[in-house]
Design a protein that fits this description.
Order of helices and strands: EHEHEHEHEHEEH
Helix content: 10-25%
Number of helices: 6
CATH architecture: Alpha-Beta Barrel
Largest sheet: 5 strands, mixed, barrel
CATH superfamily: Fe-S hydro-lyase, tartrate dehydratase beta-type, catalytic domain
Shape: globular
Strand order of the largest sheet: 2-3-4-5-7
Number of domains: 1
Strand content: 25-35%
Number of strands: 7
Length: about 180
């Protein structure tokens, strides 16, 4: 298992292959459906984003409220296909990686290849355990969305699997018989 750190460079991304396992450390941002719609809308309108996408990672997650003394509540991945209408726009604007669960559509796989990004899979069904890799969490945008606001997370050795790589490799196609 390889350890990588954000922000992700294209050099690092290009070495990752579908099926690789990694431990990710550094800053990642959470965003789900409504936050993605707002980010994509801002990009299309030429507006400033709440954070620079260059080299960054967006985790398709809506964390729950933290228990007293905890950094964050449950923070498992949500179904990635719901973000597919927005992902090509974000990748074109510099987003390096996405984290979610499930397969991606062909246009997203093509955008990952075209813009040399990467799609990671988080361990689904383990949201209450994944929070142990989060060192800090704070809302940075769209607080009115509640758990779907954009959070800035600092993670350490967050376990992931490469689902789609910058060469167009797709773990789901590879595993189909």
């Amino acid at each position: 298992m390889r350890t990588i750190t954000t922000p992700l460079s294209r050099k690092v991304i290009d070495t990752l292959k579908a099926g690789d396992t990694v431990l990710l450390s550094g800053t990642i941002y959470t965003a789900r459906d409504q936050a993605h719609a707002r980010l994509a809308g801002a990009i299309k309108a030429g507006k400033k984003l709440p954070f620079d996408l260059a080299g960054q990672v967006i985790y398709f997650c809506g964390p729950t409220k933290a228990a007293p003394g905890a950094v964050i509540g449950s923070c498992g991945p949500t179904t990635s296909k719901r973000m597919d209408p927005f992902s090509p726009v974000l990748l074109k604007a510099g987003l390096a990686a996405m984290i979610g669960k499930g397969s991606r559509t062909a246009p997203v796989i093509e955008a990952i290849k075209k813009y040399r990004g990467v799609y990671f899979l988080a361990y689904a069904g383990c949201g209450a355990l994944i929070n142990q890799y989060v060192r800090s969490a704070r809302v940075v945008a769209f607080a009115s969305l509640g758990p779907e606001a954009i959070y800035r997370l600092e993670v350490e050795k967050f376990p992931l699997v490469v689902g789609a790589d910058s060469a167009g490799g797709d773990i789901y196609k590879r595993l189909r018989v």
